[in-house]
Amino acid sequence: MRKEFLEEQWLRLSVEKPEGGINSIRISAACIPDLYLGLDKSGSRNLILEIPKSLQFRFKSVIKENLSIEFFNESHHIVLKLIKHAFEDLFNDLILSLYGKIFEMSDPKGFAEEFIHAFYRWNGFFSGMNSQNLTDEIVKGLFGEMIVLKQQMEASEPWYIDSILDSWKGPYDARHDFESDEKCIEVKTIEHTKTQVRISSEFQMDLIPDKPLELCIVFLENGGLEGKPISALISAIREIIYSNGGDLGIFVAALSRKGIFGIVLPEYDHLKFNPIKLSFYDCAAEIFPKLTPSNLADGIFDVSYSIRLSQLESCKLSENAISWK
What we know:
2 domains; six-stranded antiparallel sheet; 13 strands; about 30% helix; elongated
């Protein structure tokens, strides 16, 4: 199922607005639970789950600023309602994420609980959506990290997608941009004409015991005819997650940390980047030039420095051209 399909269904429902109640349509014949899209007389979008009346079920309605959930005891429907139209795109993401989790579930108690869990998990994404006024450099850095995220997901098996998403720590300001059980990756994004890379902390090249650390340099061109905004990259990653049955909520949670999703995305569409190649380097190699807490004299801290790319050639692990249409 794709977002375009949902929009087609919403359009069908909007042809005739109900005088009362909700116009609804079953989301898919392939969905085992009775799950419906609904449009009420005010044009608000609803997601409706019907649960068997044989299931003993109690739930207290919750109304937040932009999202609400209510249980109708007589009809045994749980209704998740979008209150503000500005969040319709994000509401589609919620629906697709939830659909992916429950469409094959046959246990009413299980899919009802998952429906309610989705409300509480996603509600925070529907608030605090104000832009943080990110600088061009921060947006470029996030673009580079997401290029690495995209490349990793494209090269992985579907069952591993969520683990890759969980490993992306850049938006959480962790020590390294990617931290998994296997290794850590620090990502630097620079223009393809640059001959040096900036290390902003003595901790960025510091090793975690028993875990490899790689430096990934994303080379790109600013603007240009082939340039794409970060919104296009987010859409491409979203599509990979959908196609592989991944948990979109993990990705949205990371983006929300930087306030760079949903209704604020168009604010950054003037920035366009053309990714050219990725180069990976072994930071654990003895000849890798770096400053870390272990090799700094006592009293020296808050260090930043630059490394000439020519000095990293002997530590290079791989180099891959990026092809993204």
